[in-house]
Amino acid sequence: MLASLPELDRRLTQVTIENMLEKYRIFKTVTFEAKEAGITYSYTERFHGATNSVTDQTAAIATHNVDVPAARRAYCALIDSVVERLTLREQQLVRERYLRREESYDYTIYNHVFDPPVSKDTYVKIRSKAFYKMALALADLQLLSLAALEKTSSGARKEK
């Protein structure tokens, strides 16, 4: 038996997915600045006894310089794989509107990128379907929680 698909809050889903795509764009466009080890030691006043802990600043920096870019690449690869699963129109919308280096606007996409051009309402439907599919896929990859995006009744909203 197939589980029913959850009903998600369209606006909240859009905001969440747009934030994730903005993070993707930042990772792709902003270069990672590697940390460097300091070569001079500074005096650190200690008012307590020995902690018997050993720190290795160089190892911590080296680990950071390897792990952070790898995590950024992995995040971008996951987003790319999710976008590749969408229909061609949905892929075109997401790539042109959210994944390119330079920002573009919705009206530019539905008037000039889509061939033939579509209406604003059709564009919103395509985007909503794409974001819904992306939310399901990203939840499957454990990058977001569907429970946070599910629609709540109007009574539950008023209590918040």
TrEMBL record:
**Source species:** Paenibacillus phytohabitans
Superkingdom of the organism of origin? Bacteria
InterPro entries of this UniProt entry? ArpU-like
Kindly provide the name given to this protein in its UniProt entry: Transcriptional regulator
